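Fig. S4 source data, part A: sequence.
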Amino acid sequence: MRALILLGGSWHDFDGFVAHMRGLLSDWHIESTYDLDRLYHLKTERPDVVISDTCFARYGDGREEPGPFSMSDKQIAALRDWVREGGAFLPYHSATVMGDSSAALAKLSGGAFVEHPEQFSFPVYPVFGGHQITDGIEAFVVRDEFYKERLADTVDVHLVGFDRGIAYPLSWSKREGRGRVAHIALGHSALVWDHPSYQRLMLNTVTWLIGR
C-alpha cells in the first residue's frame, strides 16, 4: 500500500507527522512532498491514499515561512477528479486551514477551519450509530488544539468535542463520486500521535478510506 502525504504552510511539525505515519503504517510505502504539483500525476502514480498535512497560513511575525500557502484551482481540480474516480483523500488536522484556496477545496474536504483556542485537555466522544471509523473507540481525553470548523458539504460526523456547551465535529467522512474523503481534526503533536485511541482512529480511518 502507498500513501502520498502533502505538506506545506506553517505552524505545524510536518516532518514529525510523516515520521509518526511511517511508524504507524509500518507496512506501507510512505512518500511525502511539499510540491503540490504532484497532484497532477495522481492518475499515473496511483497512490492508495492521499493525506494532506498542510496549514495554509502565514506566521506574520518575520519568521521564515516554508509555504506553500494555498492550493491552486488547477491542483484542486486534479485532486477532486482523482477522488471522484475512486481515490481516497484524508485532509488531516490543519488541512482545513484553506488560506487563499478557493471554496472548492473546502467542499471537497467537507469543511473549513474557523478558529481554535489555546491547547487544553478535552474529552472526545464517538457519535451514536456506529461506523468503521469509530470501531472499538470509546470516549477519550486528549490535550490538543480544539478545532472549530464550519461544514462545507454533507458529511457523516463520527466524533465530537464540546467547548462551553457547544458540540463541534472532530472527525467526519463523505463519499465523493466513486471515492472517499475523511477528516480527522485531532493531531497537532506527539501528545496526540502517541495516544492509543487516536492511533486506532487513524488506522480505522485509513482502512475505511481504502475500502477494507
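Fig. S4 source data, part B ends here. Residues 134 and 201 are 6 Å apart (CA to CA).
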